[in-house]
Amino acid sequence: LGTTGALLLSQCSRGSSPSAAPGSPLAQAKVHSSEGGLLSFDLVAEAQRVKLGDRDANLLTYNGQVPGPRLEAKPGDTVQIRFTNRLNQPTNLHYHGLHIPPTGTGDNVFLEIPPGESHTYEFQIPPNHPAGTFWYHPHYHGLVAEQLFGGLAGLFIVRGDLDEVPEIKTAQEEFLVLKDYALDRSGNIPDPGHMAQMTGRIGDLLTVNGRFNPTLEIPQGGLLRLRLLNASTSRFFALSLEDHPFYLIATDGGAIAAPVEMNELVLAPGERVEVLVQGDREPGQYRLVNQPFNPAQGMMGRGMMGGGSMGGGMMGGSQRQSTTETIATLTYNGTTEPLPLPDQLIAIEPLPETQTTRQFSLNHGMGTGMGMVFLINGQAFDHNRIDTQVRLNTVEDWEIVNTGTMAHPFHVHTNKFQVISHNGQPVPYAAWKDVVSVSPGESVRLRMSFRDYVGKTVYHCHVLDHEDRGMMGILDIQ
Ligand code: C2O
Ligand code: CU
Fold first, then answer.
1. Do 118 and 200 belong together in one domain?
2. Region 325-349: what's the mean pLDDT?
3. Staple partner for 101: which of 65, 70, 106, 226, CB 3.0–4.6 Å?
4. Is 460 a pocket residue for ligand 1 (Cβ < 6 Å)?
């Protein structure tokens, strides 16, 4: 029933993959104790001088590393996280994407953990929780962008249904935490500057697992499972694999029903995907390339089409990213008989149609002397205001409309959603999501069912400078 330490250790050393090797930045966290289905981890947030690729950098770390240690649990496990804040400012933890209580010692983002203090989080992963690629990061309002940009983020993996699909089981697994950094010549993170008020802070150093252009090996038989997280504060990624397709198998909230072939993966801040990559019969090398993309123009903004005028905004800030860069290299030795792709994954239950539709409009405006404020339905975040009240065990449609000039990845805590339509067009396949990017002029319809937990939680823009500057609301489930 419970996960034993031995089992976790064997998972840890299972692959010979570079990113999962013990001691590497993505090594799985040590379980402090593990009895009767209780997994206990220690996490310490602390400023440290660390290596970022070949550079020395003063970053914010969990347990002295960027990204933070990878946590793993199974449905039914009780997870205990003994967290200590050794930063010089308050912080806390958010378990992004997990369906756990938003209150008490669960995913409670209203907590403040002052410098020097500790807090023990403890929650159960529900027995019916889907497998998926989730993550943790700070969520102390006003400091989230700064702390995440500094390096505070780690993966939280739930093992379950998708991992049992036979073809997936045989694939080699690699975790790819994508994150941008900015460093000055002494290895410090420079001040975000004026522009970051609009675009959010964006760095020009693109890392995968805290390294520059790491090499990953596609195993013999040619089936590689990549689990990607965009842990950037504000940067979008638009990835391609030279001439080779990705086969999408999971989105933010877990598996989709069947693989979908894709030539490009766009990841907004906070989004995750899992894809399979197949090797050829011939040996070769595939470069994972981040391409020019303009989030303010949505899917129209890929490539050089992104003119930048729409993303320009009143202060000249543009979310457009115009360089092409290889962020990882996959090598492959060739094979005589490539492993097959799965036909089917995990069925997705459609949510029942509902009469309840709520509107959310996203925009920004001038604050009172402090630069820009970012608004949902015309209002900036207020700790003491409940913005949206819903009833437990109901289904609602939320229509998210972007009436501004910047792209906003909309994120909801606690309960995941399905995107029903994008600008009135139905989406091509059903998927569980917890972040969806809405470009200027677009509207996106989400369907959500509020189950299992009552209490206050939040929704917000995952460009975290926008969130810190007001683009967040309180959702109360009763
Ligand atoms: Cu990953 Cu409320 O955020
Ligand atoms: Cu935003």
1. no
2. 92
3. 106
4. yes
